[in-house]
């Protein structure tokens, strides 16, 4: 795709667990928000009514913010009619796009709504992304495991919009290719009910039952943070930067959205090639800090190549921000490097000598001395983390941001009265004319200041006056109440014009395309007849039923680029000569899994024993 000929719009895409989170995301600078509907989203616990989606859409579109609705689970035959009805309701509520996984949806009677291919469709290759582009998707959400080089190649060889995750929790398996939860407890990740077996502690043994690792979270990854790589991703061809977190609370949404908004604004300011994808300027009343929100540590994952420290082996819980090491222990207090940063009521944690996360509450802080509510079993030199910052949380409960659309205002005299012309930052304009008698002012020197003062009072609207131009022939008298009424009516008129001017991007028309392979295994996630028909129409000759329909014995339940051997320093490609016998086995209570390693592809597979 040639990116040199057009100004490219860059989108910050934030999650919305509910309406409150969606509104907060918009106010804190999101260019788009993604939210679940009442059913069929990959986060079953984050459903929302059509009424709430419609309210979010109405607010969002004022700022040219898009609302994307996630229906990204795979559907059974009897759910498809219900899904079709819901999709029409979503369209009529004004949503801009659907995020989907199930190809059977493309066989339904759909409204002309844009379609985005969820990361659950396992989008790792040029061939797969090009196919999705050709069958009607306007955007593809890339797999998190891709390197910068792979993203650049996909962008160069396709024409579809590319969306990439830049922050938040990481699934250890390729998205859409994990069946561990379904196999163990009947809760399908592909149907929005993942039980997160990847976050459990495991013991690792070799083929001779020698214990290699005990009680570590060997499949639990750190959280993604690509905040220092945004410009690289833009140059590579990504246009939508996605924050994970449809189960996160409003404080998380505020903090992380604000953090990335500020980062992107620095990159976009004065850049001749890129521009923000929405309208309005956000003013922040706090300093965002991602370490103060839920965080399992941070990794750039595979963006810049494989690294050994992508897993958080000690805990799947939030560590928070590192404070410093304990320097002295008293009877009922301790001292810590950077202890002055702490506040009464803070939550602290550390990894104890057994490798377990231990948390406690700060009762009070006196200079360097920290007095816990209950003294933990802590040792000298231990690294302390703050996973609850009392002062920061208090700030987040208040007003933390304000978003305004810039206006130019022209107050002009006409033959039988006056007119107010309002033009927003996107060039949308309206003229409000009013007839009235004209009377000279007793204080002519104050007339212009009075007009500017009254017209600039836009506090209860989404607008702020950036420029007010006055063109009158004489210093006429204007009662403040009259100017206020004119301003209000002019703004209401502009609201109507801007609402009518908003254009939703329609669904892309499909064209003939063959699926990259002729056979689909259970990894194709086909569990309904329409999906089966879709793949047959696109050249697939053999289709196995999805795992949720027919669970196959002895097949891998998880495919992952995360490799335990590499993490532990046992990679043969790095020159390690094994002192243990394979296959390796993961255990958690009575659950046992065999690990197999495809070293040519640098992949690990997990199969239940």
Describe the structure.
Helices cover 23% and strands 28% of the residues. Helix 1 packs parallel to helix 2. Among the domains are: 227 residues, TIM Barrel, CATH 3.20.20.380; 79 residues, Elongation Factor Tu (Ef-tu), domain 3 (Beta Barrel), CATH 2.40.30; 99 residues, no CATH class. The protein is built from 13 helices and 30 strands. Strand 2, helix 2 and strand 3 form a beta-alpha-beta unit.
List its traits.
Elongation Factor Tu (Ef-tu), domain 3, TIM Barrel, eight-stranded parallel barrel, 609 residues, alpha/beta, 13 helices
Question: What name goes with the CATH superfamily of the domain at 8-170 and 222-278 and 286-292?
Answer: Copper homeostasis (CutC) domain
CATH architecture of the domain at 8-170 and 222-278 and 286-292: Alpha-Beta Barrel
The helical percent reads 10-25%
Low-confidence stretches: none
Radius of gyration: 28 Å
CATH fold annotation of the domain at 8-170 and 222-278 and 286-292 = TIM Barrel
Bulk shape:
globular
Number of strands: 30
The assigned structural class equals alpha/beta
Per CATH, the class of the domain at 8-170 and 222-278 and 286-292 reads Alpha Beta
What's the end-to-end separation, in Å? 46 Å
Q: Order of strands in the sheet with the most strands?
A: 1-2-3-4-5-6-7-11
- Counting DSSP H or I runs of 4 or more residues, the number of helices is 13
Query: On the 0-100 scale, what is the average pLDDT?
Result: 95
Strand content bin: 25-35%
What composes the largest sheet?
8 strands, parallel, barrel
